[in-house]
Design a protein that fits this description.
Elements: H1 2-28, H2 36-43, H3 47-59, E1 63-65, E2 72-74, H4 76-86, H5 89-106, E3 109-116, E4 119-126, E5 141-143, H6 148-155, H7 159-165, H8 182-195, E6 198-201, E7 208-216, E8 222-231, H9 237-242, H10 244-259
Antiparallel strand pairs: 1-2, 3-4, 3-8, 4-5, 6-7, 7-8
Helix pairs in contact: 1-3, 2-3, 5-10, 6-8
């Protein structure tokens, strides 16, 4: 009897967890907020079940209502869990060592970033030792449309997600090189997908260039990016591009640590 009761509790718990994970996965696959009806359709669960699970997830802070609507997005608590998972002490020490060695080889600042909503979130970053440098801490957020990491991650979003997201971006012009229209940005993203890397040629700050390469999981999906940043006077773009093999080798090591790739 005890075994039967335990098995029943296990099945019930597992089923509830599977439902919750299904809803979170549905939200993660779409850039825009989703309604209860949309979540029910995407997860093939009864709307009443979705309503119950969503309420529980909302109470836990794992999802939240979009401001001014009854649609749902990831909650602050879930976002923090994601950041903590990527920057867990053991992983952080390992990725920090990879970045430190890369900075020693190239002589310029390197970082790892992920797409968080419409922005890039820096998961880890190691600064170079030059007096002239842009100092940003891990946890900093920057625009996605004018940064190498941002453009690379946008380029590798599934087509439907990308088409949903691009019109929502605030395409602010930071320099004369910033891409400020969706067609121009989409064309640049297509080039990035074809060449396998992204560059930021003075698009967010005059006098600064950057190059980013993908960090992939075991299935080949791009989940993060690794980049180098440098003043143009110190590391011209052609010399930066010549460092691409170093970045790709480091990205492979990071992928193994973060995603078991």
């Amino acid at each position: 009897m005890i075994d039967m009761e335990e098995n029943e509790r296990t099945r019930t718990t597992g089923s509830a967890l599977e439902k919750a994970v299904g809803i979170l996965e549905a939200l993660g696959e779409h850039v825009r907020a989703l309604s209860l009806s949309e979540l029910a359709e995407l997860t093939t669960m009864p709307k009443q079940t979705v309503h119950r699970v969503v309420r529980q997830l909302e109470e836990l802070g794992l999802i939240a209502r979009e401001t001014g609507s009854d649609r749902f997005i990831f909650g602050a608590r879930l976002r923090q869990i994601g950041v903590s998972a990527l920057s867990a002490p053991r992983q952080s020490l390992a990725t920090r060592q990879i970045l430190t060695e890369l900075v020693a080889e190239i002589g310029e600042t390197c970082n790892i970033g992920v797409l968080d909503g419409e922005q890039v979130l820096y998961v880890d970053r190691v600064e170079c030792h030059w007096p002239l440098r842009v100092q940003l801490r891990p946890g900093s957020r920057v625009p996605s449309h004018c940064t190498a990491i941002g453009k690379l991650l946008l380029a590798h979003l599934p087509g439907a997600q990308r088409r949903e997201l691009l019109p929502r971006l605030e395409l602010a012009a930071f320099t004369r090189n910033t891409l400020v229209t969706v067609p121009d940005l989409e064309a640049a993203l297509a080039t990035i997908r074809g060449q396998g890397y992204a560059i930021n040629q003075e698009e967010d700050s005059l006098g600064l260039n950057a190059m980013a390469v993908p960090v992939r999981d075991a299935s080949g999906k791009v989940l993060a990016a690794l980049a180098v940043h440098a003043p143009t006077a110190r590391l011209p773009l052609d010399e930066m591009l010549a460092r691409r093999p170093l970045l790709e080798a480091a990205a492979g090591k990071v992928a193994e640590i973060l995603f078991g790739a």
